[in-house]
Amino acid sequence: AQSVAQPEDQVNVAEGNPLTVKCTYSVSGNPYLFWYVQYPNRGLQFLLKYITGDNLVKGSYGFEAEFNKSQTSFHLKKPSALVSDSALYFCAVSFHGNNRLAFGKGNQVVVIP
Amino acid sequence: DSGVTQTPKHLITATGQRVTLRCSPRSGDLSVYWYQQSLDQGLQFLIQYYNGEERAKGNILERFSAQQFPDLHSELNLSSLELGDSALYFCASSATSLDTQYFGPGTRLTVL
């Protein structure tokens, strides 16, 4: 079965510092990997995805993620965090041919001014 | 704004009742998905429809059912409601069955 682990509950970072949100996955075969962000009282917004190709994926709002097959990881990164990046971040995985998304528990990111 | 709309935004009802949640996908999207977000279970896939046909089923209770209509909007029906059904219910849509899913704002269901 496919699954995703987001090991940290909350990530605190000072504004202007690099932001990293960790994600590891377990799925047989080649995974499709996604990051979504959820702001309070809002739906999930798509940030980026990895299907195949270049391991470094660039997405919306300056975010990027690196696919590492040997470590089965897909960490989300942003070089310089903004206060407005404070939100709940979800990593998700699906398996080719099956578009149901399995989500991690989510990471609360708090960017401190 | 993702282009996916959901109504109502909030729903408060009593145990044992039945409710219907409605979702309109993005223009041109054929696939609709339903997810449940609760504090104890997190975000869970419930069911997927593609062009009117059920395509995949996840952790959906037998008390829950869904359908996708010819105009591609979808409804999720929840019956014999229990306190534990209180959650945020999200609809998502994608162009085809394998494309990126875009989520609506959700319906918050409170069962009292």
Task: Describe the protein's topology.
The complex is a heterodimer of chains A (113) and B (112).
Chain A: E1 3-5, E2 10-14, E3 19-21, E4 24-26, E5 31-38, E6 44-50, E7 56-58, E8 64-68, E9 73-78, E10 87-95, E11 98-103, E12 107-112
Parallel strand pairs in A: 2-12
Antiparallel strand pairs in A: 1-4, 3-9, 5-6, 5-10, 7-8, 8-9, 10-11, 10-12
Chain B: E1 5-7, E2 10-13, E3 19-24, E4 31-38, E5 42-50, E6 53-57, E7 64-68, E8 74-78, E9 87-94, E10 102-103, E11 107-111
Parallel strand pairs in B: 2-11
Antiparallel strand pairs in B: 1-3, 3-8, 4-5, 4-9, 5-6, 7-8, 9-10, 9-11
Describe this structure in words.
The complex is a heterodimer of chains A (113) and B (112). With 113 residues, chain A is mostly beta strands. Chain A contains no helices and twelve strands. Chain B has 112 residues and is an all-beta fold. In chain B, 0% of the residues lie in helices and 54% in strands. In chain B, β5 and β6 form a beta hairpin. Chain B is globular and about 35 Å long. The mean pLDDT of chain B is 95. The interface between A and B is medium-sized, with 20 and 25 residues.
The count of DSSP E runs of length 2 or more, i.e. the number of strands of chain A, is: 12
Strand count, sense and closure of the main sheet of chain B?
A: 7 strands, mixed
Report the largest inter-chain contact. A-B, 20 and 25 residues
Q: Could you tell me the number of beta strands of chain B?
A: 11
N to C succession of SSEs of chain B: EEEEEEEEEEE
Structural class of chain A: mainly beta
